[in-house]
Design a protein that fits this description.
- This protein is an alpha+beta fold and about 400 residues long.
- It contains 12 helices and 20 strands.
- The longest helix is centred in the last third of the chain and has 23 residues.
- The two termini are about 35 Å apart.
- The mean pLDDT is about 95.
- The protein binds 8-demethyl-8-dimethylamino-flavin-adenine-dinucleotide and P-hydroxybenzoic acid.
- 8-demethyl-8-dimethylamino-flavin-adenine-dinucleotide (RFL) binds next to helix 1, strand 9, strand 13 and helix 9.
Amino acid sequence: MRTQVVIIGAGPSGLLLGQLLSRSGIDNVILERQSAEHVLSRIRAGVLEQGTVDLLRQAGVSERLEHEGQVHHGVEFAIDGKRERLDLHELLDGRCVTVYGQTEVTRDLMAARKASGGITLYHASAVQPHEIAGESPYVTCQIAGESVRIDCDYIAGCDGFHGVSRQAIPAGVLTEYERVYPFGWLGLLSDTPPASEELIYASHARGFALCSMRSATRSRYYLQVDAGDAVENWSDERFWEELKARLPEETAAQLVTGPSLEKSIAPLRSYVVEPMQYGRLFLVGDAAHIVPPTGAKGLNLALGDVRNLHLLLERAYRTGNPSCLERYSELCLKRIWAAVRFSWWMTTALHRFPDTDAFTQRVQDAEWRALLDSRAGRTTIAENYVGLPFPALD
Ligand code: RFL
Ligand code: PHB
């Protein structure tokens, strides 16, 4: 088999890249280790930046998002039991975020892929990129017991943090930057009305809590838990009691609880690899960087990489000159490090660390006051939360 671009991974990054390339007339094949149902069963992100919504619109996959996505003009912080609202819309001249689950983004992209007739090979095992340093790379894999080889011009590694693409780059080429946090997030999804109309990020002596949502009738909550904790330790009752204990009293009193539809624990980590390209292999999204979910940046950053790679590939094919592709890493990394900084800051400012002493806690409280009491401080948080602009290509 031959195609122009092999995309490894059919998460949101791989599917969006496939959609944008197909619309530019660039042939591509997507290889995914799991089934489509499995990809859709992973409950993850919920908050889309303005730029992400615009990108999905350009890709022609925003119809349902525009009807069902909830535009949020603000976000709340509960610090020391007191709720405070950041009016994103007012601080940023009308810019805001949209609440629409990653599962739904993925579902819309899968439908568009099907409609475009693009090839996605699910249940692909032993996926392996070859000859990435040369001009004729190819990818091999096993599908239903058959060996498959796909020759191509370029390979896009959209296979997440545990994928094979990053591993295919020779030792010594990449520099890794990493911070592992001593806690994780326990998430619970339920068919209950949200605690509030907007998200609430709560910092509490018992640990961080987040009230989010998927719709007017479906809520998503998170609790900071110890890194070694297990879902089995958390009955629904225990989850709701702990959540109430970490929220301001009036919010806890109004909280509607119900059976969980899903519960899972995600570890928290910051990770960046540089550069994001080696020869004809490009790392995209979680394959190249991970941020803790506190800033709601992971999916947005991933789709930002997709936007850059699509524009560069489109230019390389149009002009017949691939040299512009060498700019891929540099184009992505500035915005990535800005989001890594913001996510790290949100995480440290809202969570309790095992070694937080009384002095550090007082300084953290004072930092929140300094920021929330100043329009400049609120604007800085708001700008980062709604997302920084995409880089210009030239
Ligand atoms: P994905 O989604 O991990 O998809 C990678 C795909 O590659 C496949 N794969 C392989 N395929 C073939 N061969 C192999 N060897 C393969 N190895 C892996 C996998 O099966 C999978 O289908 O990466 P992608 O597309 O880059 O997307 C990144 C996002 O999923 C991620 O950044 C976000 O979910 C992060 N995130 C959030 N991001 C936000 O922007 N806003 C949020 O509110 C937000 N909340 C979250 C989050 C992530 C969370 N968890 C669980 C980590 C909340 C949570 C709890
Ligand atoms: C979510 O709704 O899953 C969500 C929202 C905001 C975050 C992280 C996750 O910062």
